[in-house]
Design goal:
Elements (H helix, E strand, L loop, with lengths): L2 H9 L8 H8 L1 H11 L9 H4 L1 H11 L5 H7 L4 H14 L1
């Protein structure tokens, strides 16, 4: 992004539409410029982090499970004990 555009944006930041103003606050102008280049014209749904990372988290829960640590895993991953039990049960059924 050229210098003149950056200057104009910083001088009139209050005119930037949400949520793009928040993205700039979190990640800077260069990040929103890269995002725009990559996804300009697209309709993008941004799911929760839990959804984005679900498979990674579920796999790690399975790897850390020792037969006795459901409560600890639930606390560590901010999930319910029921979720952990159901996950482990479904993984053992599919194995």
């Amino acid at each position: 992004m050229n210098t003149k555009i950056k200057e104009a944006v910083m001088l009139h930041k209050e005119l930037i539409l949400p949520p793009y103003d928040e993205i700039i606050d979190l990640n800077g102008l260069d990040a929103i410029a890269a995002f725009s280049r990559a996804f300009s014209g697209s309709s993008i749904y941004v799911p929760s982090l839990r959804t984005i990372f679900k498979d990674c988290i579920d796999t790690e829960i399975h790897n850390q499970y020792n037969g006795k640590n459901i409560r600890s895993l639930a606390k560590d991953f901010n999930l319910s004990e029921r979720y952990i039990r159901n996950l482990l049960k479904s993984q053992s059924l599919s194995a």
